[in-house]
Amino acid sequence: MNISARIINIMVILMKLIRILKGAGIFGNYGTMGAASVTLIQDDKNILVDTGHFGNRDLLLKNLAENDLSTSDIDTVFLTHMNWDHCLNVDIFKNAEIIIGKDEYELGTLTGSNDGITEKFKEYLKNRNTTSVSGGEKISSNSSVIYTPGHTHGHISLLLKNGNSKIVFSGDAIPNRRALIRGVPDLIFYNLEKAKESIIKIKNIHPDIIFPGHDPPFNENGYIENDKVTIFMRNEDETDFSVSIGKDIASKPVIYNE
Length: 258
Ligand SMILES: [Zn+2]
Fold this sequence. Notes:
Elements: H1 3-14, E1 16-21, E2 27-28, E3 31-32, E4 38-42, E5 46-49, H2 57-66, E6 76-78, H3 84-87, E7 97-101, H4 102-107, H5 118-126, E8 130-133, E9 138-140, E10 143-147, E11 156-162, E12 165-171, H6 177-182, E13 187-188, H7 192-205, E14 209-212, E15 218-219, E16 222-223, E17 229-234, E18 240-245, E19 254-255
Parallel strand pairs: 5-6, 6-7, 7-8, 12-14, 13-19
Antiparallel strand pairs: 1-4, 2-3, 4-5, 9-10, 10-11, 11-12, 15-16, 17-18
């Protein structure tokens, strides 16, 4: 058993991590699928890191049910940021406290642009049990907030500690392993320098595992899990055509707002 696998096993004994939705950067000539990771942490409370979007709502519900969980079992929804692919299922977790970065609550948007539709979403959050945080706050016995702006105004990550093991849920501050290596996320909606600083901040924690926004978990040494992405299309005779794909060729980071 390698060190990483052993760490995951230790985690399973004391607290549980479940990848409810697997994240990947799936882009094509038809646009992006926005497949963001949704991970459940079972510490002294059930914390869901991000919630995905409408397109994967059925799968989210199915995968929760397969783990004997209903939406009402989620105590805390931790939104790494307000981009649509990470937060649009927040409404189904009606009992949960919602955690969001302070600057994200004030300045973040669903689309990363001045879209004019985010205000409605913020209004919704105001009518929920929403807490804004700016780094250092405890979320459960073993987890706390890391402030990681840059990708968006108030992006936050979550640090989970178990003995000497450190796990970071990095959202799109580090969306994939390429971003860790390059030191820059794929997309920047707020500030390039802050985005770079946030990656350094996470690196300096020396996490044993990073659960990113759009990739399987990894660390500085490599991937801890490998996922296969399969895309289905339905033919006119009701049969399915499917294609399985590996990792995309690296693309240059895109800066929207500097
Ligand atoms: Zn994303």
